[in-house]
User: What shape does this take?
Amino acid sequence: MTVRSRPGGRTARTKEAALEAATALMAERKGEAITMAEVAERAGVAPTSLYRRWPDVRALIAEAAVGQLMREQPMPDTGSLRGDLCAWARAAAQQIASGESVLFQALAANAASAGAGRKASGAEPLQPRGRQIAAMLERARERAEAAPPVADVLDHVLAPLYMRALFGAPADADYAEKLVDRLLG
Assistant: This one.
């Protein structure tokens, strides 16, 4: 017997409504913490429906922010790895420095909501973006370019951009390009 999954249904509608509600609240709040109860109310669902899918509000916010990021900032395809990485890093630096990074705002605002001793939500919401970066690196390998692992791109390009912003010294596009050159150098 073959079991077929349903293409939609109540679970899919609940997920979509929750992600839309979280995205709307992030846009309205711009850096303020959001609660599961607020997302549930906006989505028209019970908070327990949200907790079935997301362990806490940080995981929900991260998934909504990554979804928005993927829609609004697709990975570049310039024809070279350096070109792709520079275009991506410059755009990320500009977005972070402008204060318009929904992912950065959401994670920073909700970081305090993680109680002491609570397990972190993990990287699951970030995996779709990681797959996009992996695809960019695979394109480079197909062109016979030497491409680093995804973790190196995150550690040597993206992490420094976010860390500088956390410490009040956001990077500019030139710095982002220097990070790429160091990674590929």
In short: The two ends are 55 Å apart (CA to CA).
